[in-house]
Amino acid sequence: MEVPESVEIAWGLRERPGKGPKRTLTLEHIVEAALRVGSAEGLPAVSMSKIAAELDVSTMALYRYVASKGDLLMLITDAVLGPPPPLPEPGDDWRDGVYRWADAMRAALQSHPWSLRIPITGPGLMPNHVAWMEAGLRCLRGTGLAPDTKMAALLLVNGFVRTEVALLADLRDAFDASKVTEEEMLSGYGRSLARLIDAQRFPEIHELLEARAFDMPGSGPDDEFAFGMERILDGLAVLVTGKPPA
User: Fold this and answer.
1) Nearest by Cα to 109 from 44, 48, 157, 54
2) How many domains does the chain have?
3) Burial letters 138-170, b for 16+ CB under 10 A, else e
4) Higher pLDDT, 153 or 16
5) Which distant-in-sequence residues (6+ apart) come within 8 Å of 124 by Cβ?
6) What is the pLDDT of residues 24-66, one digit of tens each?
């Protein structure tokens, strides 16, 4: 697998350009500009020309620092993640460690949820991605799980976190577009279901409607995240201890 030029630059394995149309331009400035554009206008607006305009340089000037837009997108995802939480100390509870790891990743992704629409083209090679993988594995160090099982566990947690953040961002976009609150949308959804379903065909949904479940304030995103993470950790605990949780 060939290592992209920008990855080598990020790891300090290749010198960065020292000369160019604008000496104050750096790779960090380019990534910061890309984050500003993405936060303001979404991923479709993140183009080399748009970023160049943001920095008041020519588009060609960017290519002295970033070989392609694909490389830039890798740099963006690494910048969004930032460094992982502090590594656990020997003897720390593995459940607490994995939960903190997931919660810190959630917070990082929530700062730029649009970045989740960047296609995943392969395993992460950037410095922060690798640091997060190391931190996650450290959390599982004392579990006795096999190395491949540890990686599978991290992928499971990572997928849950990404889905939670993306779903919440999509729902917020839907609320903003419809100009209704979450409670109003759910209540309207319940009324629509009540008009459409047959109690004999959909008895479980009918029970929810009878209980007016869609009219009640639901749990918040933090509660839903905690519920999902605890269930995942319960499942991993079965592998660690060899028995289901009490």
Assistant:
1) 157
2) 2
3) bbbeebebeeeebeebbeebbebbbebbeebbe
4) 153
5) 77, 78, 130, 132, 133
6) 788 899 999 999 999 999 999 999 999 999 999 999 999 888 8
Report how far residue 181's alpha carbon sits from residue 218's, in angstroms, rounded to the nearest whole number: 12
Output the pTM of the full model. 0.86
In terms of DSSP H, where are the helices of 82-146?
94-111, 127-139
pLDDT digits (tens, 9 = 90+) for 3-15: 777 678 778 777 6
pLDDT band at 17 (very low <50, low <70, confident <90, very high): low
Single out the residue of 69, 66, 65, 80 nearest to residue 128, CA to CA: 80
**Do both 65 and 128 map to the same domain?**
no
Structural domain of residue 63, as residue ranges? 5-81
CA-to-CA separations, 8 to 5, 164, 179, 202, in angstroms, rounded = 5, 32, 46, 56
Measured between alpha carbons, how far is residue 93 from residues 27, 106, 224 in Å? 39, 20, 22
Which residue has tokens 């910061």? Answer: 32
CATH number of the domain where residue 13 is located: 1.10.10.60
Q: Are residues 220 and 102 in the same domain?
A: yes
In the 8-state DSSP scheme, what is residue 92? Answer: -
